[in-house]
Amino acid sequence: MRSMRHRRLVAPIVAVAALGLTLTACTGDIKNDEAADVDCGPYESYGTFDDGTEVTVAGTILDLEADRLEESWADFATCTGIDVSYQGSSEFEAQIAVLAEGGNAPDVGIVPQPGLLGRLAEGGWLIPASEAVEANVDEFWSEDWKKYGTYDDTFYAAPLMASIKGYVWYSPTEFEEKGYEIPKTLDELTALSEQIAADGDHKPWCVGLESGEATGWPGTDWVEDYMLRLYGPDVYDQWVTHGIPFNDPQVAGAFDAVGAYLKNDEMVNGGIGDVSTLVTEAFQTAGLPILDGECSLHHQASFYETFWNPEGGDEVKVASDGDVFGFLLPPADADDPLSVTGGGEFPVAFRDAEEVEAFRAYLSSDTWANNRVSLGGVISANKGVDPENASSELLVQSIEILQDPETTFRFDGSDLMPGAVGADSFWKGIVAWVGGQSTQQTLDAIEASWPAS
Prior knowledge:
By secondary structure, the protein is of the alpha+beta class. The protein folds into 2 domains: 15-161 and 345-385, 3-Layer(aba) Sandwich (D-Maltodextrin-Binding Protein, domain 2); 167-341 and 413-448, 3-Layer(aba) Sandwich (D-Maltodextrin-Binding Protein, domain 2), CATH 3.40.190. Helix content is 39%, strand content 12%. It is built from 17 helices and 15 strands. The chain has a 5-stranded mixed β-sheet, with helices on both faces. A hairpin with a 2-residue loop joins strand 1 and strand 2. Helix 9 (217-240) runs antiparallel to helix 10 (249-262). The longest helix has 24 residues, at 217-240.
């Protein structure tokens, strides 16, 4: 997920300091005196602040993406006088509640799970969003997106970035040379996979489920995509909210449909090994065998574009006529409406201060969304974003899909489930399942973990 799912990069762990838990810094501060010649017109409405005014921010966004995130608010910092200090850790999700309870939370936490947002709100640690933030959300975001930042009828956070799950990455050159066609249905995807396997050059799919403490989450994305496509949004919603049990036959059907790939040595793990390597291969690198012709297909979200060029270069061209591109996991029936799963983040506040809300108002604006999308590698569901600002053909397409009122969008299911399920037993269940545990045993164990209330 995770949004976009920010369980993406290996990072320093959270240090246990003598005075308590602190987040490990992976990037430096934005100093408002380091930039010059900035047009401050777009930032006048946020006000100006005294020297020394600071907003601390933490999240799981790291490395190149963290650099771009800081760049996206550098002009805001310069023009308002607010120093914005960002710290990132791959353990943010696991540690933020502990930090909040101990009074050591950052001013703003970029939370990639509505379920985690709810847990923090329930703990009494969050500051409701200001009127300015809510006004931006009402103008630029759909009601569904606003709902994801709301808990118990209180609005706490605007959405930030977004991702579309369910892209299948492939090599356009290979498809052209071998006469492969983009599948229009799930059955056609099966036929394509079987054709690639029969050709004998390599296994069709390459998959990586390893992600540190979050190992298994890429497999949950597969299941969520199949739940939505096989049974539709109403059943998906019932599943996510426990309106149907986790071991319902429909959930078993989605697992078994995914298992036809993930538990099948004829289908995986192209360029990497056999089925056993799924849980040891990092999700960040799992799709790269496509570039060497060692696999043909890789299921991962729109944010995976960053991993083809992790240093920010453009050696690998992401385009329909480039080195790699993606098509959406097709529907069960060609006439089914476009349905996609996706994720996002929500900047929640732990300190009630004018500068904090000015910063959050900026992050909820179309100005910030266009600034960040223009820097590359990400998308936003903000309706004020110009799709042409996106850094690739695929990301332009992704923004247009999110902005299309005919698109059926559902947030990543595991991110909406209680943490004991969506960020624990579901992930662990995927690992046990691909390791040989039966579908029924797996679903029964996850169902048993669902909180009683």
